[in-house]
UniProtKB/TrEMBL annotation:
Residues passing through the membrane, by range: 32-52, 87-105, 126-150, 156-174
A single GO cellular-component term on record: endoplasmic reticulum membrane
Keyword Transferase tagged: no
GO molecular function: metal ion binding; ubiquitin protein ligase activity
A single BP term in Gene Ontology: ERAD pathway
Compartments, record wording: Membrane
Membrane-protein topology: Multi-pass membrane protein
Name by which UniProt lists this protein: RING-type domain-containing protein
Entry superkingdom: Eukaryota
Keywords: Membrane, Metal-binding, Transmembrane, Transmembrane helix
Amino acid sequence: MCGLFLEPAFFLVHRRIEHARLHEKHRGHEKMHAYMLLILLTSVVVAQVVLVQWKKRHFRSYQRVSMVGMWLIPLGISVHSHWWRFVFVWSIFTLCTLVVVSWALQKPIAGTTPRWVYKWFYVVHMQSYALGVAGYIVVMLTLLGVNLVFRAKPQTWMDVGLLLLFYGLYYGLLGRDISEIITDRMACTIGYYTTTGVPVRQLETNVCAVCGNKIHVLDNEEAIVEKTFKLPCGHMYPWVNGQLCRSALPYRS
């Protein structure tokens, strides 16, 4: 009988000794964790200040470095984690974009190239916008419990919604950054304007200052994809993706 009572007491003492050893081993870790948190917060604040100043003072280098990082880092993470679906979609997007970019960097540039460049990135923008909206709707329906009507697990619907949101945001931002850089390069190559703002060619009002082609649809009520915008000087420019062609903006008559 004594052995039956001594065995639980022995295990109780052993646990207390092990617990005391654990506390002794991790003594002072609270201070270390506090230092780690302080270093983390300081790093975040300093990095944010550095990024803001970098973007403000050297926008072109900031834009290019951020674009390359956003383009390549997710690919490396996906390959390491074996997320082959993202790798496949990324490869198709990159291949099509590189073909369009190669057209835009040709010298001399073809007259139809700017229109194709704008159309490609307009399609990317619209598809990204649609994916983002669809993902947001799926997430909201999941939070409202609509998935229970279809006897589906909330985790499945939430995964689909977040996946669509990610694809929409990622390719939307990446396409925007690439299009801004490429349009600047095309503007310098085409030469319809100079950095001083003095035009080197005289254009008719119904000719695009970016590609030199005639604008076929002058009435926006009849436009389907590409609308036009008339400046006070009378020149007409394509209204692509909700904004004027960036290459045309520096030109003034």
